[in-house]
Write a structure and sequence with these properties.
By secondary structure, the chain is of the alpha+beta class. It is built from five helices and four strands.
Length: 167
């Protein structure tokens, strides 16, 4: 393992309260999907509240806002979990549970080994991505950047073939 690990944050706005019937399938799948992440190659850490997931962590005044954060060994490990595992099934149904985002909703960035990013740090990176576009400090799967100190540019990974997008 190198001196850097990949942090990710994604933000979603639920269509309904989490305890409403239309959200039941999403809520019912949380434990299994989080267990899958925890057991996935390259997984390092994920944000958790008292519930064992991050749905009970309030990040703003909107109770429908849900945040997810994790740290991975590298971009490929996160991509494999997100788009090539059972998690893909959750991604394909996200339109049923979440409003279409109006801005960037996912951001990736490099953190030193052992660092666990805060929610505020994640939102700052997401704002950087929205304001300046992909760069070394905030990027996406399609426009990814190597860890600090590495000069080579990685080819992007396109999630589109693996899940239903927002278009």
């Amino acid at each position: 393992m190198g001196a850097w690990q990949l942090a990710q944050m994604n933000v979603a706005t639920a269509r309904y309260p989490l305890d409403d019937a239309p959200m039941a399938e999403f809520v019912a799948r949380l434990d299994a999907i989080n267990a899958l992440a925890d057991a996935s190659p390259g997984f390092v850490w994920r944000l958790q509240g008292i519930s064992g997931n991050a749905t009970d962590i309030r990040v703003d005044d909107d109770p429908f806002t849900i945040v997810n954060m994790s740290v991975w060994r590298d971009v490929e490990s996160l991509f494999a979990f997100a788009y090539r595992s059972a998690h893909q099934g959750v991604m394909a149904k996200r339109r049923q549970w979440f409003r279409r985002p109006e801005h960037a909703y996912q951001v990736l960035w490099w953190v030193p080994d052992g660092h666990r990013p805060s929610v505020d740090e994640g939102f700052a990176r997401l704002q950087t991505l929205q304001r300046a576009g992909p760069g070394a400090t905030a990027f996406t799967f399609r426009h990814r950047f190597p860890p600090p100190g590495r000069a080579d540019q990685d080819d992007g990974l396109d999630p589109a073939p693996f899940c239903a997008g927002w278009s």
